Amino acid sequence: MRRLLPAAALASASLLLTGCFAAADGGTGSDTGKRIRVAMMNPPRSGLSPLSDDAFKLSRWSTAETLVTLDANGDAVPALATAWRQEGRTWVFTVRDGVTFHDGTPLTARDVERSLTRAATASPKPRILDGVELTVRASGKTVTVTTAAEDPLVPQRLSSPQLSILSAEAYRGKTVDPVGTGTGPFRLTKVNGTSSASLDRYDGYWGRKAKAPGIDVTFVPDGTARAAALRTGEADIVEAVPVSQAALLDQDLITEVPMPRTNTLYLNTERGVFKDPSMRAAARQAIDAASIVKGVYEGRADVAKGLLGPALAWADGLRTARTPAPAGRPGGATITIGTFTDRAELPEVAQTLQQQLQKAGFTVKLEVREYATIESDALAGAFDAFILSRATVLDSGDPAAYLYSDFASRGSFNIAQLADPAVDKALEKAAATGTGEARRKAVIAAEAAVLATDAAVPMLHERVIQGDAAGVVGAAHDPRERLLVTVDTHVE
C-alpha cells in the first residue's frame, strides 16, 4: 500500500458506472495527453456555489483560487495576493499582477472586493466567517480587509475555498456561478446538475501550465461503485474509497493518510433525553470506540482521544487529564440517532452504537438518509443524537474555526444546540489568541471545555483512502481535502 504517513467491488456496481466516465464534451487544445477521469463522492448541493461546501470541489479541481493558500504547517503563503501586512484590525493585501479570469478579464482589486464582500454579506455566511464581521475596500492594486475585532487569523481565513475570487460574470444573479469565472489552471466548462462536470486546461493561467488537457468528473455517491470504477479502469482518480472496499483492491493503487476528520456523536443539549448532562455522560460512557475502529473501519482509523486527531501532531501533547462527569441511569429512555449514507461507514457505525447504547439501557431508534435530505433536520435539532464525520481544519487550517462553528452558542453548525457560557468564553479566547504555541494551547483548552459538557463524543479519526490508477502521476493526497488534481497531475 502506498502511504504518505504511517498510519472485489460487486459486479452490479460496475453496471452503475457504464458510460459514466466517457470523455465529456470540451476541447483538449493541442495537447495529446489524456483527460483525467475523477470519481467523487458527494454531488454538488448548492450548484457549485463557492459560498457553500461545494467550494472545496472547485478547489480540488484547481479551478477557483483564493488570495492566499496554506503550506503543510497551516501557515499562509501567497496565491492571488503576493504580500500582506497587519495594522491592528486592518490587513492590507497586494493583488497579483498578470492574472486573468477564465472569461478573459483581468483580475483587479475591485474583483477581490466584490467576491469577499459577497461572502461577508451572504446569509448564511461561509463557515469560515462565523462570528467574524469584516469589510473590504479596494484601492489601486491593494485590498484592505478590516474586522470588527483584531483577528490574527485573517490570512488563514482568506485561504478558505469558500472565499474564492471569481470574475464579475459570476455574480450576475442571486446565485454565484463558477462556470468559466475562476482563475485556476483548469477552466470549469460544464456542469450537469448532480451527475457530472467538465473542465479544460486554461492556457492563460498565471502559473505553470497544467500537464493534463482536462478533467472529467462524475459524482458517484455509492462507495462500492466508486471502488468498482478504480478496479475496472473506468476512473483514474477515486476519492473516499470505503474501508469495506479498500482491502478488495490492488493495494498498490490506494493511499492511506491520517486526516483531520473526526467521527463524532453529537448529543442534543437543548431538548429531549440528552438535555440532562447525566444522560449525556451515560451515552459517552457506553460507547466503545475501539470496537468501532476494529469492526467497522477494519483498523483503518484511530481511536479518538479528543476532537482533534493525529493529523494535528501537536494536539495530544498539550492535553491534560480530566475527570469525566458522573453518568446517570438511562432506564430505557428512548432516543433517535440520525446519520447519513453518503459516507459508507456511518450507517454501520450507527448500528454498532445502537447495540452499545441499548446494552447500557437506552432504547435506540435510527434514522438514516442521504446527507442532502437530513442536514437541515440535524441543524434544527430534530434528533436526540447525530453521527457526523467532520473535518476539523477544513476551512482555515486552524481548528478554532471548526470548534466555534460546531459548539459556540452562535455557531452556524451547532448540531448539539450547545449554549454554554464557559465554552463560549474558551472559544472566544482561542479565536483572539495570536498564532503559535499560545494559540494551540488555547485551542486545546476550548476542546476541553466542549468535552466537559459531553455535548459531543469523539469516537475516531478517519484516514483518507484515495485510489489512483496505475498510470496516474502527481495526484494530490491532501489531508485537508483541498487539493486533488493540480498542475502536475496527469495520466501516462
From TrEMBL:
<dbReference type="InterPro" id="IPR039424">
    <property type="entry name" value="SBP_5"/>
</dbReference>
<dbReference type="Pfam" id="PF00496">
    <property type="entry name" value="SBP_bac_5"/>
</dbReference>
<feature type="domain" description="Solute-binding protein family 5">
    <location>
        <begin position="77"/>
        <end position="412"/>
    </location>
</feature>
<dbReference type="InterPro" id="IPR000914">
    <property type="entry name" value="SBP_5_dom"/>
</dbReference>
<feature type="signal peptide">
    <location>
        <begin position="1"/>
        <end position="23"/>
    </location>
</feature>
<keyword id="KW-0732">Signal</keyword>
<protein>
    <submittedName>
        <fullName>ABC transporter substrate-binding protein</fullName>
    </submittedName>
</protein>
<dbReference type="InterPro" id="IPR030678">
    <property type="entry name" value="Peptide/Ni-bd"/>
</dbReference>
